[in-house]
Amino acid sequence: MIIALQSEMNLLLYNLRYEKMDQTVEKVKEVITKYLAISTDGNQNILSTISKFLTEIEPLYIELVKIEYKYYIIKEQEKEQQRLIREQMRQEAEERKLLAAEQKKIR
Question: Which residue stretches of the chain are H helix?
Fold first, then answer.
């Protein structure tokens, strides 16, 4: 059960994208609720332990989603900065090429 829960959480984190943090947090809550329902139908001897575990781990998973989202945002900003730097380098190279061509014409 724990392995399946971890797999579902990993899938949610993998699919985390721009402006989807709130949706992912809601999905985390849905998954926890689903596992609480499964544990209720299962072995009653371990119900209290599993319920306690799931209720304690839910805020941790929500915090994990928030941290992953912040990381994703920073990573995307870095990609954009790198793209802008590459574009600027291309423009500067083109300008140098044009300047060299102009200097050859003058000579």
Answer: 2-14, 21-41, 47-106
